[in-house]
Prior knowledge:
Elements: H1 8-11, H2 22-39, H3 47-61, E1 70-76, E2 82-95, H4 105-111, E3 115-116, E4 127-131, H5 136-148, E5 152-157, H6 162-166, E6 172-173, E7 194-200, E8 231-232, E9 235-236, H7 247-258, E10 263-268, H8 278-295, E11 298-303, E12 307-308, H9 316-328, E13 333-337, E14 347-348, E15 355-361, E16 379-382, E17 386-389, E18 393-395, E19 406-408, E20 413-416, H10 423-436, H11 442-450, E21 455-456, E22 460-462
Parallel strand pairs: 7-10, 7-11, 11-13, 13-15, 15-16, 16-22
Antiparallel strand pairs: 1-2, 2-4, 2-5, 3-4, 6-20, 8-9, 12-14, 17-20, 18-19, 21-22
Keywords: Hydrolase, Protease, Serine protease
Pfam families: Peptidase_S8 (PF00082)
Amino acid sequence: MTIKPRHPSASAPDEFPEHRSGKQLKIDATHVRRQLQVMIVDPRRGRTSEIIDQMRERQERAPRQFALPFDRYPVTDLAGRRTYVLVARGQLVVDFEASRPESDPQRVLRRLGYRPWQRGWSPERPTRVFEGRKTPQELAGDVGQLTKLGITAAPHLVVPLGHIIKGDDYPFATAALGDFPQTAAAGKPGAAAVRVAVIDTGITPEDRTDSWLDSIVRRSDNTELLDVLPVVNGRAGDGRLDWSAGHGSFAAGVVQRVAPRCEVRAYRFTRSDGLGTDKDAAEAMLRAVHEATADGVRLIINASIGTPAVDGVPPLALQSAVRTVVDRFPEVLIVASAGNNGSKDPMYPAAFDGVVAVGALTADLQPAPFSSHGDWVDCSCIGVGVVATFVTGTLPPVPDPAVADYTFPANSWALWSGTSFSAPQISGLVARACLNDPKLTPRDALDALLAGAHTLPDYGRILRVLPGTPL
């Protein structure tokens, strides 16, 4: 099916022209074809399994501050195929609010051999993590027992599961965009500031000298962990970028390409290799909301993360966080990537009510072959061969005979594909609209942008924002 671009005034594609030469586009198209080839490989076999095993070994040997030991947990998708997700080893998430009041979850969990894992629990955050020496099979059995007793529980999911599909999909260097058009984060006089909170791997610790990303405040808790694994001779790192390093800086750069005057704030919820949990992501989301409320700014949350449900149960901590935001902070807009599973299986947080799910298209506005899709997807834009800011370092994460080493210098720009990079285009577009209208809420801005846009079944409303890379 051919989809005509919507009217230029709606998504203003002329404001994001192609900056690369014809020669560069041909080079980039070669790299994008490789990314697509990797992203549509069956995740249950071959190279992907090797990558997961390598990640698991790295995590088990990592220092405590970097480590997230995990296991594979078997699930069945909507097509009846057996696959798996990653779960934090021996951990369950329990939603106290959704459990029967008389069920006494803590007593039951103690009897099953679990203890509280995370401190700082409060009634505002009704989910809590418990840990025990359990195999994935034992976790599944315990969840069944808890469910029968009226206790809502699920394995503690490792959320940014992009590596299951695209762990061997590396960004490639491309031509720089040139001078940064505007650096000041400002709107019209009297307007509340507009902030995009990027819930991701964090922001590059390097100080770029080209003015890109320089307005994003670096803190110890939001800078990216670029090269900390494996530990070699007692030292962290091996001179290579870890898996998913640069993901957050790339997403932040996408937002700034679309809305250079908005404020971008980075929230890192991952540890090394881009691994973070359901609870970590939920806490980052709530922290972003509370900081924006305290600062009096209009907020768009960009969550380029996702996981499927396990046995029909979505990630409980994220579900609770989204419920809190939607119920108590309706002026906040949550935008999330639809995922790269290439199937109709709902991915979360994108598929939660109240969240804007964004799919990916090719440069000619056709469905990207890797993009998750379904009636739960609200809109889509180009997610194949997107160009944005990247970090300094060498890829691939481990030596690969099929790919020669290549190094990104300072002030790098990269080429990457995925719904992770279509979502921040929508976040940026909403922020841009809000900056131009002091009275506009992010939700109203989104509604106005989508009004009248063409619809593609299972991919929602179609928007043309950044150009991507033609194949």
